[in-house]
Predict the 3D structure of the following.
Amino acid sequence: MGLAIGSFLNVCIYRIPRKKSLILPRSFCPECNTPVRWYDNIPVLSYLLLWGRCRTCKTKISIRYPLVELLTGYVFAHLYVFAHYRHESPCVFIGYAVLSCALIISTFVDLELFVIPNEVTFIGIPLALVFSALCPGLHNELNTLRNFSLVGIYRLDTVIASMLGMLVGGGLIFLCGVIGKRVFRKDAMGFGDVKLMGMVGGVVGWKLAVAIFFVAPFFGLFMAIPVLIFKKVHLIPYGPFLSLATLVCILLQDYFIGIINVYIQLFAILFAGFHS
Ligand SMILES: [Zn+2]
């Protein structure tokens, strides 16, 4: 399923920033305009059988196509196993899977064009609220509240948790951008990243949003160092690192939420100390 959906994500990555319809026309070779036949459209396999070239004009097909398909398949499998072993409802898996699709589209568009498409975040942000209402399991830190709330109120709690996640996730990146602009006197952080982290925070809640905010720069460094050394333009897209950090933090959420909880207790002790 992940491979097939990955194939559709490829269509999104190419067509969304070019403002083209996602449904029509059918997939075609951008070089010779020949429509791609169904047997040449099988995820990964067709790429291998065609030796990575168009059947008609022999133009090279970007390695991005099989890569996105494999990545989506891998991420879906990982998330499924994760949800399965934690005895989460299938809805939690679907929520994470939909989020990972949004992240994969954003990542590859950002890598190519340095933008995170509004089409993704403007659909993703309301979807995050809907998923939070439908599958309360997404906001695990609320589970202790379950015994105290009626079903309706509990679901309202999760929607509020989702909004709080959006505010914290988007807010942290926004703050970073404001400070960065003051310090470096040019745009340090795109507004696309703010919306992306708002969407992510809406799905994972405020604690994981904080964790992702601190984990993402570590991944970013791996790319920033070679770019700083070898390239003249010192610009790196940040969306891919936020996305990668999001997936890592979702899979290791018990660990990261544990760390955040330690800090909350630490601040609580400090705060109580100042007042006594
Ligand atoms: Zn062709």
User: Anything to note?
Assistant: Residues 86-275 form one domain. The mean pLDDT is 87. Residues 29, 31-32, 34, 54, 56-57, 59 surround zinc ion (CB under 6 Å). The chain has two domains: 1-74, 86-275.
